Amino acid sequence: MRERDVSERSLVEALTPPQAASAPDDGIRTRSFRPAVRPAATAAATASTGAAASQAGRASILVTFVTDRADLTGPAKGALDVLAAAMKSERLAGVRFTIEGHADPRGGDEYNLRLSQARAESVRAYLISQHGLEAGRIDAVGKGSANLLNKTNIAAPENRRVTIVSQAK
Fold this sequence. Notes:
Layout (H helix, E strand, L loop, with lengths): L7 H8 L15 E3 L5 H11 L8 E4 L12 H14 L8 E6 L7 H23 L6 E5 L19 E6 L2
Parallel strand pairs: 1-2, 3-4
Antiparallel strand pairs: 2-5, 3-5
């Protein structure tokens, strides 16, 4: 999504899981949500994720982290505030979510897995403590550095991100 398209409504659309009663679906669909990225950069990142960018049920959010840290920055908290409003919406009220943390590959595999887990847990804790979301609705999982968005520049901030995945009802 482009900067101007990011809103509670667009996140609700991106995170609404496929309905069992609707037409057959072949799996989870994804859309990217990048609140602090210029449109040209967003287009390049979308192109790098291929067909996954045109689907729903998943949102990659550029929640910025300082290298080697899991602390949320001010801009990250702003993006999570919009996410929390979407998660509280009527359409997503009964949906469970998984927060997937990601790291760039500059550390070792084990270190990156721990760091990505800490980032996912940091986001989960913020959504629960600051927005009152039910802890049982949100899981946190570290993915390490296996799923880079920017393989050309491994230190790129988009490689240090979280992805929000909605689980089918």
